[in-house]
Amino acid sequence: MELYEKQGIDLKKEMDKKLFEMEQNFRKEMEELERQHKRKNNEYESRIESLQKQVDLAQSMLTSGISSTWEGNEKFLTSSLLADLNEEEANWTPEQEKIVRRAAIKWRYHQFTSVRDDLWGNAIFLKEANAIAVELRKQVTFQYVLLTDTMYSPLPPDLLPPGEDLSCRPYPKTVVAVQVKDLKNGAIHYWSLEKLK
């Protein structure tokens, strides 16, 4: 300390100066982070709004009177969408019309999908199950998975909603399930959301 004083260095003044500089840098960084956070937040909100508008538009299109009939294994749409296809404004080639029909059919099967609602509505159960497993020192983890019914990996009946007939669907059914990893035995099990509750 005396050495610093002899050299003309005031240690307290230097420390105060450095502390002031550090506080200034900290404030600048915090302001920049807040600006970035606000910008990202605005971007996400606008993206969510645009996606919500797309969903609302698609749902209103599908619920505005689209009905369907079966012909063999291919499903054709009738009513207002078909009328829109045949308007003079829509000069589509047969191939374009086929693509539009397929897209509308596929969307019809996806419009009632409530995967997001299932995930959000049951997140508390999943979190609680993981917390209980940790408290009881069980070597088990729970997490959501999406399972799709295919020819090579059919879904077990306990994962399907009651009364679901997969033979009538032209597209594979995807369901939300809970993957239970038994870390002790190295086993993986799949539970329905009802079984988790």
Structural write-up:
With 197 residues, this protein is α+β, with helices and mostly antiparallel strands. The chain has 3 domains: 63 residues; 47 residues, no CATH class; 82 residues, no CATH class. It has 6 helices and 5 strands; from the N terminus they run ααββαααβββα. About 11% of the residues have low confidence.
Q: Roughly how many Å apart are the termini?
A: 67 Å
Strand order of the largest sheet: 3-4-5
The Rg value, from CA coordinates, equals 30 Å
Order of helices and strands: HHEEHHHEEEH
Q: So what's the overall shape?
A: flat
Total strands: the figure is: 5
The number of helical runs is 6
Q: Which ranges are low-confidence, i.e. pLDDT below 50, for 5 or more consecutive residues?
A: 65-80, 84-88
Strand content: 15-25%
The biggest beta sheet is recorded as: 3 strands, antiparallel
* Count of separate structural domains: 3
The secondary-structure class comes to: alpha+beta
**Average of pLDDT:** 76
Please give the share of residues in helix. Answer: 40-55%
Keywords: Coiled coil
